[in-house]
Inverse folding.
Protein backbone atom coordinates (compact mmCIF):
# COMPACT_ATOMS: atom_id res chain seq x y z
CA UNK A 1 0.00 0.00 0.00
CA UNK A 2 1.38 3.37 -0.98
CA UNK A 3 2.21 5.91 1.74
CA UNK A 4 -0.08 8.57 0.25
CA UNK A 5 -3.01 6.26 0.94
CA UNK A 6 -2.24 5.98 4.67
CA UNK A 7 -3.10 8.02 7.73
CA UNK A 8 0.04 8.41 9.81
CA UNK A 9 -0.13 11.51 11.98
CA UNK A 10 -1.90 11.59 15.32
CA UNK A 11 -3.73 14.73 14.16
CA UNK A 12 -5.21 12.83 11.19
CA UNK A 13 -6.39 9.99 13.43
CA UNK A 14 -7.83 12.48 15.93
CA UNK A 15 -9.82 14.23 13.21
CA UNK A 16 -11.36 10.94 12.07
CA UNK A 17 -12.22 9.94 15.66
CA UNK A 18 -13.75 13.32 16.45
CA UNK A 19 -15.68 14.00 13.24
CA UNK A 20 -16.21 10.52 11.88
CA UNK A 21 -19.03 8.06 12.19
CA UNK A 22 -18.28 4.67 13.71
CA UNK A 23 -19.46 1.20 12.77
CA UNK A 24 -18.60 -1.93 14.70
CA UNK A 25 -18.96 -5.67 14.74
CA UNK A 26 -17.39 -8.60 16.58
CA UNK A 27 -13.83 -8.11 15.30
CA UNK A 28 -13.47 -4.51 14.11
CA UNK A 29 -14.46 -0.92 14.75
CA UNK A 30 -14.37 1.40 11.73
CA UNK A 31 -14.41 5.19 11.85
CA UNK A 32 -15.15 6.95 8.57
CA UNK A 33 -15.19 10.60 7.50
CA UNK A 34 -15.30 12.20 4.00
CA UNK A 35 -11.97 13.71 2.92
CA UNK A 36 -12.94 15.66 -0.26
CA UNK A 37 -10.38 13.93 -2.46
CA UNK A 38 -10.44 11.28 -5.16
CA UNK A 39 -8.84 8.59 -3.02
CA UNK A 40 -9.26 6.80 0.28
CA UNK A 41 -6.82 7.06 3.16
CA UNK A 42 -6.70 4.35 5.80
CA UNK A 43 -5.14 3.97 9.22
CA UNK A 44 -4.94 1.08 11.67
CA UNK A 45 -4.76 1.42 15.43
CA UNK A 46 -4.02 -1.86 17.19
CA UNK A 47 -3.92 -1.74 21.00
CA UNK A 48 -1.85 -3.91 23.28
CA UNK A 49 -5.03 -5.73 24.31
CA UNK A 50 -4.77 -7.62 21.00
CA UNK A 51 -1.47 -9.20 21.95
CA UNK A 52 2.28 -8.76 21.82
CA UNK A 53 4.03 -6.87 19.03
CA UNK A 54 4.25 -9.93 16.78
CA UNK A 55 0.48 -10.49 16.94
CA UNK A 56 -0.29 -6.78 16.53
CA UNK A 57 1.87 -6.53 13.43
CA UNK A 58 0.36 -9.69 11.97
CA UNK A 59 -3.12 -8.21 12.44
CA UNK A 60 -2.03 -4.94 10.80
CA UNK A 61 -0.55 -6.80 7.83
CA UNK A 62 -3.77 -8.77 7.38
CA UNK A 63 -5.94 -5.65 7.64
CA UNK A 64 -3.77 -3.74 5.15
CA UNK A 65 -3.95 -6.61 2.66
CA UNK A 66 -7.72 -7.02 3.01
CA UNK A 67 -8.19 -3.28 2.53
CA UNK A 68 -5.83 -3.26 -0.49
CA UNK A 69 -7.75 -6.08 -2.16
CA UNK A 70 -11.14 -4.43 -1.56
CA UNK A 71 -10.21 -0.75 -2.03
CA UNK A 72 -11.31 -0.76 -5.68
CA UNK A 73 -14.79 -1.93 -4.64
CA UNK A 74 -15.52 0.91 -2.23
CA UNK A 75 -16.46 4.52 -2.94
CA UNK A 76 -13.61 7.02 -3.04
CA UNK A 77 -13.16 10.12 -0.93
CA UNK A 78 -13.02 8.82 2.65
CA UNK A 79 -10.59 8.61 5.55
CA UNK A 80 -11.01 5.34 7.42
CA UNK A 81 -9.55 4.11 10.71
CA UNK A 82 -9.83 0.47 11.74
CA UNK A 83 -9.48 -0.58 15.36
CA UNK A 84 -9.36 -4.35 15.89
CA UNK A 85 -10.94 -5.81 19.00
CA UNK A 86 -9.14 -8.35 21.19
CA UNK A 87 -11.05 -11.33 19.69
CA UNK A 88 -9.45 -10.68 16.29
CA UNK A 89 -6.26 -12.46 17.36
CA UNK A 90 -8.17 -15.77 17.33
CA UNK A 91 -9.98 -15.08 14.04
CA UNK A 92 -9.22 -16.63 10.67
CA UNK A 93 -8.30 -14.47 7.68
CA UNK A 94 -11.69 -15.06 6.02
CA UNK A 95 -13.55 -13.98 9.17
CA UNK A 96 -11.59 -10.72 9.28
CA UNK A 97 -12.24 -10.13 5.58
CA UNK A 98 -15.98 -10.73 6.02
CA UNK A 99 -15.98 -8.41 9.01
CA UNK A 100 -14.39 -5.57 7.03
CA UNK A 101 -16.75 -6.08 4.07
CA UNK A 102 -19.75 -6.05 6.42
CA UNK A 103 -18.58 -2.75 7.90
CA UNK A 104 -18.31 -1.31 4.36
CA UNK A 105 -21.89 -2.44 3.76
CA UNK A 106 -23.09 -0.88 7.02
CA UNK A 107 -21.46 2.42 6.04
CA UNK A 108 -22.98 2.10 2.54
CA UNK A 109 -19.68 2.71 0.80
CA UNK A 110 -19.44 -0.66 -0.95
CA UNK A 111 -20.05 -0.45 -4.68
CA UNK A 112 -22.96 -2.51 -6.03
CA UNK A 113 -20.76 -5.08 -7.74
CA UNK A 114 -19.79 -6.59 -4.35
CA UNK A 115 -23.19 -6.36 -2.62
CA UNK A 116 -24.22 -9.90 -3.52
CA UNK A 117 -21.49 -11.30 -1.29
Amino acid sequence: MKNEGRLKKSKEFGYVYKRGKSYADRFLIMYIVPNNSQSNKVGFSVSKKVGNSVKRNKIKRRLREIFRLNNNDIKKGYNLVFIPRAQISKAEYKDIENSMINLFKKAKILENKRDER
Observations:
- Helices lie at 10-19, 53-70, 93-107.
- The chain has a mean pLDDT of 93.
